[in-house]
Structures are given as structure tokens and as C-alpha cells.
Write a structure and sequence with these properties.
alpha/beta, single chain, 2 helices, 97 residues
């Protein structure tokens, strides 16, 4: 399986802990290792391509699980943390390719 799961956020976002729980739950339900890459948008080590997403965003192979798009600007997500179901759907979509 080549799917790469990433959590993009910035420190102080009130939804980070919930996003981590949802990602962990999704991976567990898919019987995948509960590991993912995290990117703090304010860190100089974060690739520029990861700095344009809302916080928190969960990416599967570079695409936001809630919008299916790449990032376009830093900001907070209004809806809060993406749900495990959205992560699972994105993982299944990638598996079907």
C-alpha cells in the first residue's frame, strides 16, 4: 500500500487532538499501521506544498480528504477536524486506483 497520510496544522489550533484521534481511528479501522506524517505550517521544515491547507487538514497522497484538493492558503477549517469516515473514504479511493 502506497497511501501516505499526513496531518497539516498550526500550533494553537483547537482541533489538533481531535484530528489525531480521527486519523488514528481511521487507520485502525482500515487495519493499517497507526502512523502518519505531521506538518506544522509555521515550521521552516514544512514543505511549501503543505503550507496552504486549513488547520487541521488530513491528506491522503497529497489531497485533502474533505475537499479532494491541494492547499491554496493558510487558515482554520470552519468544520473542525476531518472525520475518520472521510479519511477511510479517501484511503479506499486510493486503493481502487
Amino acid at each position: 500500500m502506497t497511501e501516505r497520510v499526513e496531518l497539516v496544522y498550526f500550533e494553537g489550533c483547537p482541533h489538533i487532538a481531535e484530528a489525531r484521534r480521527e486519523v488514528s481511528r481511521a487507520l485502525r479501522l482500515c487495519r493499517l499501521a497507526p502512523t502518519w506524517q505531521e506538518w506544522d505550517m509555521t515550521s521552516p521544515d514544512t514543505p511549501q506544498s503543505r503550507k496552504g491547507f486549513g488547520s487541521p487538514s488530513v491528506l491522503v497522497d497529497g489531497f485533502d480528504v474533505t475537499s479532494g484538493m491541494t492547499g491554496s492558503g493558510i487558515g482554520c477549517t470552519v468544520a473542525g477536524a476531518p472525520r475518520a469516515e472521510a479519511v477511510i473514504a479517501a484511503l479506499k479511493k486510493q486503493l481502487s486506483r
